[in-house]
């Protein structure tokens, strides 16, 4: 088996850290010295303005010529072949054979969960609802809503990828508590919630800790023995709607937290995470994994044993990881949302350019397109309990699956979610 640390030593160049970005104020304050220093400041300002103007012009043309996210284009033979080289040829291009379970009038089945009786999957979608798959004959059925303000007319997406999320909610992470049958939900705007067995309106459990509100609650997992809920807040500064700024700024204010259902206490377990995203507890409950999307890595926090309280890098990845999910064998499936696009790398070196791009009047689809690699593909990576690569499944040309957010292995099948696409995928192993 191939170690991630060996396999991806070169891939870190494709997902460069943003920690070194130095922000400069657009209009530096003048001191008392007016001579050469003032002229130098003026020169830099003029250069920055020229660069920004050029960037605006260039990317206006770029966006005009490049449509929104839509049906995938076939990649060249060379590009498709190159996709398999990251893992030394081990990756299998098979996910294009997945069955697509289309949603009706909505999009973005981000996370997937099955209840104790095997019903499901359940998934949260972009209009604030939680749906349940009732089989081919019944399709997707309403199960719950996360917002007390939800109503069908206001929350209808009307063809958009992102609707009125701040009002309607955006349920992202889902997980069932096996003993109670309750469904716990991480919603980007309404924090940590729970839905009873019968569905309906969710009950809000937590929206802040130590006086600091959650800004972007994202994913969760549950310790089925001691009932602790582990969940992420992707950023303490940016909301989900500001995801582009979150990535481009190099923000590292993400947190991993725990919630005790008995005491209602929220604890911060980890700070300083770069776009904290997916969460998965190990089978023996000795450690927990959290994906850092901007950092292109999976971080491990030890909960028990001689390393308790310590962290290490569990896996380096060749792109942006979304959720991580453990299967019944104790292995982990990581969904790779996409590879880093050229613009993401350029922005870290030029703060003027970064500000110019982020001020453009862009919708969600165009912002997403700018930060992602041009090739829309799906990649699901299975890791052992030690972080070794066990399997890599792809849809290299994005024929069926693209921009995947979660891979859930259940009863021998892979159920695949996406935060953007209007369907979930079912691939039979």
List the total number of helices.
Answer: 9
Low-confidence stretches: 1-14, 16-35, 58-85
> What is the CA-atom radius of gyration, in angstroms?
22 Å
Supply the CATH class: Mainly Beta
Quaternary structure state of the chains depicted: single chain
- Which percent band covers the strand fraction? 25-35%
Mean pLDDT: 82
Write the layout of secondary structure elements.
Elements: E1 2-3, H1 4-7, H2 36-65, H3 77-83, E2 92-93, E3 99-102, E4 112-113, E5 122-124, E6 129-133, E7 140-145, H4 152-155, H5 165-168, E8 171-176, E9 183-187, E10 191-195, E11 200-201, E12 203-206, E13 208-209, E14 212-213, E15 217-222, E16 229-233, H6 243-248, E17 254-259, E18 266-273, E19 276-281, E20 287-292, E21 297-302, E22 311-316, E23 320-326, E24 332-338, H7 342-347, H8 351-358, H9 364-371, E25 378-383, E26 388-395, E27 404-410, E28 413-418, E29 423-428
Parallel strand pairs: 2-26, 7-11
Antiparallel strand pairs: 1-26, 3-29, 4-5, 5-6, 6-7, 8-9, 9-10, 10-12, 13-14, 15-16, 16-17, 17-18, 19-20, 20-21, 21-22, 23-24, 24-25, 25-26, 27-28, 28-29
Helix pairs in contact: 2-8
Notable characteristics:
alpha+beta, Neuraminidase
